[in-house]
Amino acid sequence: MNNKSDILVGVDLTKTYGELAVVKGVSLAVRAGEFVSLVGKSGCGKTTLLSILSGLEHPTHGQAFLTGKEITGASEDELALFRRENVGFIFQSFNLIPTLSAWENVALPLFPIQMSEAERRRRATELLDQMELAHRLEHLPAALSGGEKQRVAIARALINNPKIVFADEPTGNLDTATGDAIMAILNQLHRRKGMTILMVTHEPELAKTADRVLHMQDGEMLS
Q: Are 122 and 159 within 8 A, CB to CB?
């Protein structure tokens, strides 16, 4: 489990809320450069597990290691800095700031860093161009389609050159064709740039595009 090539490791992770156990003794490892899908029905605990592995939540029991660092005992300030430097997030609901333009949303993770606005804009513009959204730089989220919003969110996830991207139901709010386009982008990032991705989905067909598929049921890892 502690292989040097593993970028992400979970050991006996458990999360309880009162008497309800949502994650039950889960262990797993993800290698650097691997695309792993985590599949299971709604309510099986996969999003909670993702939150623990990415440092958004603390487990009740167990350990999580990211880029060789144990994150389960870190403070909130330490975790915030660690996530900013190492992790990218893509959410089902996009999580864009409605009052910011597309490029400002992409550049948002750069604002705590000492950097000129011109440099932030340059880096955001470069990523949006890769997402074929160079013509949407100044548009607010309300003026974007669902697929465009998710491409902005992917660009934002990549702005700090993360070592791993966590994607939680990235196609959940999209129609089939748009969802397929988003999956094509994720697969391209994985194949061409060696991006490490852990994706949560309840759709087995989408999960099959990954290198490896893990299955959860009732808080436990089946495979």
A: no
- Total domains present in the chain: 1
Q: What is the largest CA-CA distance in the chain?
A: 51
Handedness of CA 25, 215, 176, 161 (dihedral sign): positive
- Its pTM stands at 0.91
Indicate whether 19 belongs to any domain: no
Q: pLDDT tens digits, residue range 75-120?
A: 999 998 899 889 999 998 899 999 999 999 999 998 878 888 899 9
Establish if 23 belongs to a structural domain. Answer: no
Look at the chain and count its residues. Answer: 223
Kindly state whether residue 90 falls inside one of the protein's structural domains: yes
What is the extent of the structural domain holding 147?
32-58+75-221
